[in-house]
Amino acid sequence: MSELARMLDALGALHPRRIDLSLDRIERLLDALGRPQDRLPPVVHVAGTNGKGSTVAFLRAFAEAAGLAAHVYTSPHLVRFNERIRLGRPGGGRLVADDMLVEALARVRDANGGRQITFFEVTTAAALLLFAEQPADLCLLEVGLGGRFDATNVVDAPLAAVLTSISHDHADFLGDDLLGIAQTKAGILKRGRPGIIGPQDEHVTAMLEVEAGATGADLFLNGQDWSAHQERGRLVYQDVDGLLDLPLPRLAGAHQIDNAGIAIATVRRTGLPIPTAAIEAGLLAADWPARLQRLRSGPLLEIAPDGADIWLDGGHNPAAGHVLASAMAEMQDRYERPLVLIVGMLTTKDPRGFFSPFAGLVRHVLTVPVPDSEAGFTPDQLADFAMEEELPARAAPDVRSAIAQIARDYDRKPPPRILICGSLYLAGSVLRENGPLPE
Q1: pLDDT tens, position by position, 245-289
Q2: Is the pTM of this model over 0.90?
Q3: Across-strand partners of 227?
Q4: Contact yes or no for 87/94 (Cβ under 8 A)
Q5: Which domains does the chain have, with CATH numbers?
Q6: Rounded distance between C-alpha atoms, residue 388 and residue 348, angstroms
């Protein structure tokens, strides 16, 4: 075990609960560290249920195309922890090196003095410490869970707060009341600071307007102040400052039009020094692994049917199910193939809500365990949920076995389209086994 892995394991034992939403512990720890959150480059704080990571990926790509250095904090990681902390550099950022991360974590550990603190709070403090001490032009912070009491919500005056699509997820921590979830996520809005709001349910939008009124935030609303849509193979963005005719994003799926639009709206509303040419370049360069990522090589492709497509996505909640089903339907319209899902899912998720949008679209579902997790549905349980939603399903011991089974079942033309989904942890295990590894 590496020194970094040993330290992360030790720090993870400082609190009996993996998630315990509160700002008291992180604020006490940051005070002991000299308040690094007050010395950050301009911060864009991003919350939401789906689309946070993709929106951050677009913002990073825009900034780097403009020659800006952008620090980035996201979670969870797919393959190795370092993916969570990207240090901005001119010409492109780099994932934090092991030795630099170990040193920062040691300082956080010493400042904490053995008191209870969650793993996410420790690692957030380490990221803020690194970001405060490394020069950059911009700092992109993705909320871990919720918003109001998330450990990232310690910046008093961000450049902007961004809210992507809000829907149901993490009911065990956020509850199942959509407006209550929206109110929690709106906790990142700050007085006198712009809040860029992506496409939302109309009731969610109304709740966000109420929260912004109480907070004194200045909302920039999709559908009222800005819009983004696809037209004739282009992304058309419009706001009060004019219209942009842009290339479609590199990231696959119609939902990425919304995420790209949120990122463009953030640039336009905040006045970041990012010209249109950099936005164009960033749309074509943005990369976000395991978000409708096509696997083009590796051992899993070698055992798949000849000519099969394999797509990987970490989507795991009902809203993600709708997005993925829509993306698959769009692909089917262009080139029809048998669609087969390989799904693993944690017990904190809603499998029936996830499966429901695929009814009538999917030829077959193969369910698998989530590797290295004791909190997942068994493949048999998950197959039962799929069949309750009228999707033919059966269990498989792992992803490799599932693909081998697909190769036996679909040995005729046209070759199948395979979507591996249901869990970011499952997606990470696929990348670990097959590649490419996130950079």
Answers
A1: 999 999 999 999 999 999 999 999 999 999 999 999 999 999 999
A2: yes
A3: 238
A4: yes
A5: 3-285 (3.40.1190.10), 293-434 (3.90.190.20)
A6: 18
